[in-house]
Amino acid sequence: MSTLESAFKVDEPGVIFEESDGDIVLVDLRSGKYYRLEGASSTVFLLIVSGQSLNHVASQCKSPDLVIHELGSITRDLLERQLICPRDTFETVTIDPWNFRGFTLEVFEDLQEILKLDPIHESDPESGWPNRRT
Amino acid sequence: MAEPENLAGFADQLTALLGHAKSKCTVEVGRFQFGKRNLTISASFDSETIPRRGALIAAGNNEWDDYPLYLVNSPGSLPLDWPTNGEVGAYGFVRDLQQWGWLATVEPGSGVVIAMHLASREAVCMGLRNLAPRHHAEFLRGIAHWHAIAAGNFLAHCGSVSKNGRAVLIFGRGGSGKTSLVLHCAQTGWRFLGDNVVEIQLNSDGMSAALVYPTVKLRQPLHTSALKTPQEWDAENHKSIHFLGGSEIAMHPAEMVPVAYCALLSQDLGTVRRHLSQGEALLMTGPDTIAQFPGLESEVLGKVKEMTSDFLIEFLPRAPLGQLEQELALAVKGRR
């Protein structure tokens, strides 16, 4: 099945996320990177992980021919980052007509060491968390 | 994917280990306040591995719930069939063990297990090596966090001080100045609730904060009168650990303090004072808070979202400590 015919979900439990007032914060617990999606970008993300195929998501966009390639490209990037993964089954959800207004994924790596560090088992026995055992 | 038989068996072994610990732990370490509850710690040994008292807060006469924590050197005749690698997630947390009633982190190579029985909230730490200065309290990090979550609370990565029964939370990444501001406030009449970790309770009336660790960590030792208190130099981390229990700094020993104001310190947000959007607040406070929660990141991120949705966080640009302290004082008086 091609990417456009597939449905996707957040790659939990390795990835966790919360939506707050239209923004989304994603945390990849395996890489320690975290991400921010604002406004229009968070809308696109939620549509991608809605459980419907990308083709169906695109068909509900007011400019489906223009957005289909964008959706494919965004999804491949999210798959490459292992933030999402394919679903086995489609979800029965209604997607309202929507507009594509761009997509920007902000990436943060400043907490990577701390997020990846096991505070109990990988901490340096002398200096403690957040110092990694040498 | 976890094999239920293995995890069910491991849960049974933890139950046996807890029973073993109860019978062997005859050294009374003490009864200590931890967030919004007391932990009564006992050990099976009498050595420097026992947590230093200055790193913990004596429980006093409060009427909070009491929970036992047992420290044992080795299970001896109780070898554990460790969960296989596939079952052990981030931080050594055995995520799927929760369905068998346990929270646990394991380090099979060193024979270390830290576990809490969810129903009884009895906890056992087995196989810990000698404790480094930072670890005198912080090896209890997992236990403290599990207790907080089990009570519906969480531990936020922030500093906190209070005045006249109203607290402020001071958020910020490492190096943002939380400890400096907290200590400045604590030395000018505020009560200390924490420089790095604070237990947070959210309810319909608002948000309250409680003290967890009576320690501060500083790049250089302080020699002011208020901090002439036991301290240890952590050479590897280049920080001085001050144990505040014997200092002149006033702490909150036994009460949740209503939070009146939340501030964020950062060197990356410019020079204009402003309230953060909810999404921005979640971004600035969520990831570093969940970094401290072995295995319960999703639950904690949800709690942080609840907090940042219900309470405004104000970015305070870089300023002299005295000026920042004045801003906090005005905020708890409700004049801002």
Task: Give a verbal description of the structure.
The complex is a heterodimer of chains A (134) and B (336). Chain A is an alpha+beta fold and 134 residues long. Chain A contains four helices and six strands. Chain A has helices spanning 39-48, 54-59, 64-80, 112-116, and strands at 8-10, 15-20, 23-28, 34-37, 84-86, 106-108. Chain A has a four-stranded antiparallel beta sheet. In chain A, strands 1-5 form a two-stranded antiparallel sheet. The longest helix of chain A has 17 residues, at 64-80. Chain A is globular, with a radius of gyration of 17 Å. The model of chain A is unreliable at 127-131 (pLDDT under 50). With 336 residues, chain B is an alpha+beta fold. Chain B has a seven-stranded mixed beta sheet, sandwiched between helices. Chain B is globular and about 60 Å long.
Secondary structure topology:
The complex is a heterodimer of chains A (134) and B (336).
Chain A: E1 8-10, E2 15-20, E3 23-28, E4 34-37, H1 39-48, H2 54-59, H3 64-80, E5 84-86, E6 106-108, H4 112-116
Antiparallel strand pairs in A: 1-5, 2-3, 3-4, 4-6
Chain B: H1 4-24, E1 27-34, E2 37-43, E3 57-58, E4 66-72, E5 102-107, E6 112-117, E7 123-126, H2 135-138, H3 141-150, E8 154-163, E9 166-171, H4 178-186, E10 191-194, E11 197-203, E12 206-211, E13 215-218, E14 231-234, E15 239-243, E16 257-265, E17 274-275, H5 278-290, H6 297-310, E18 314-316, H7 321-332
Parallel strand pairs in B: 2-4, 4-7, 9-16, 16-18
Antiparallel strand pairs in B: 1-2, 1-3, 5-6, 6-7, 8-9, 8-10, 8-11, 11-12, 12-16, 13-15, 14-15, 17-18
